[in-house]
C-alpha cells in the first residue's frame, strides 16, 4: 500500500512538473517564464566567459550569501521584536526530499530502457542493418561536422535554450503555415529517399 501511494504521489508530482514546463514554454505566465528564461541565458553566458567550476562556485556563494543574510536578518528582527518565529527556512528543512526504493527502481528501469534502445539503434546504424538509414545517419554526422566547426557546444546549447522558449510560441501563432511548409519538406525528403532506394541496389532488401 505504501509503495502504491508513493508511486501515485510521484506520478502526480511528475504530471504537475510537466504541466508547469508546458506553461513555461508557451509563456502562459510571462513574468515566471521571463525569470526562468533569463536565468538560463545568464547561466549559459556565464559559462561562455568562465569555467564550469567558477560558475558553480559563484552560484553557490551567491545562494549562501542570500540565505545567510536572510537568516541573520530574521534573527535580528526576532530579537528586536522579541518574537519566537523559529527558523525562517523551517518549512523547507522539514520538506521530504528522499526517494524510496521503489522510486529509485522505477527511474533506474526507465534509464535502462532508454540506454538499451539507444545502444541497439546505434548498433543497427553502425553495422548497416538498414543501408538507407545508415546513409542518412552518415549525412547527419557529416552536417554536424560543419556545425561543430562554426559553433562550440555552449553556443549550440544557448541556441537550443532560445529555440525551446521561442519556437513553441511561434508554432502556435503560425501553425497552419508551418504545417504546410513542413508537409512540403517531408514530401521532398520522401522523394529523395525514394530516389536513393531506387539507385542503390539491394537497399530495399537491406531494409527488409
Automatic annotation (TrEMBL):
Keywords: Endoplasmic reticulum, Membrane, Transmembrane, Transmembrane helix. One of its GO terms (cellular component) is postsynaptic density. Residues 21-208 form the Reticulon domain. It is a multi-pass membrane protein. The keyword Membrane applies. Gene3D superfamilies: 1.20.5.2480. InterPro entries: Reticulon, RTN1-4. The keyword Ion transport does not apply. One of its GO terms (biological process) is neuron differentiation. The chain crosses the membrane at residues 35-64, 150-172. It comes from the Eukaryota. PANTHER family: RETICULON-1 (PTHR45799:SF5), RETICULON-LIKE PROTEIN (PTHR45799). Inhibits amyloid precursor protein processing, probably by blocking BACE1 activity. This is Reticulon.
Amino acid at each position: 500500500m505504501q509503495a502504491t501511494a508513493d508511486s501515485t504521489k510521484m506520478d502526480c508530482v511528475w504530471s504537475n512538473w510537466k504541466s508547469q514546463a508546458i506553461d513555461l514554454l508557451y509563456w502562459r505566465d510571462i513574468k515566471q517564464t521571463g525569470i526562468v528564461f533569463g536565468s538560463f541565458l545568464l547561466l549559459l553566458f556565464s559559462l561562455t566567459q568562465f569555467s564550469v567550476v567558477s560558475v558553480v562556485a559563484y552560484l553557490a556563494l551567491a545562494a549562501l550569501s542570500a540565505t545567510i543574510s536572510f537568516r541573520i536578518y530574521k534573527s535580528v528582527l526576532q530579537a528586536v521584536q522579541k518574537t519566537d518565529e523559529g527558523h525562517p527556512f523551517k518549512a523547507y528543512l522539514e520538506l521530504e526530499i528522499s526517494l524510496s526504493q521503489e522510486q529509485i527502481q522505477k527511474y533506474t528501469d526507465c534509464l535502462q530502457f532508454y540506454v538499451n534502445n539507444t545502444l541497439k539503434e546505434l548498433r543497427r546504424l553502425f553495422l548497416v542493418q538498414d543501408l538507407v538509414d545508415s546513409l542518412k545517419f552518415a549525412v547527419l554526422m557529416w552536417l554536424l561536422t560543419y556545425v561543430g566547426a562554426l559553433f562550440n557546444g555552449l553556443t549550440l546549447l544557448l541556441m537550443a535554450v532560445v529555440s525551446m522558449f521561442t519556437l513553441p510560441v511561434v508554432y502556435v501563432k503560425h501553425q497552419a503555415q508551418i504545417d504546410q511548409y513542413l508537409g512540403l519538406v517531408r514530401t521532398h525528403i520522401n522523394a529523395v529517399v525514394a530516389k536513393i532506394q531506387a539507385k542503390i541496389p539491394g537497399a530495399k532488401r537491406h531494409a527488409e
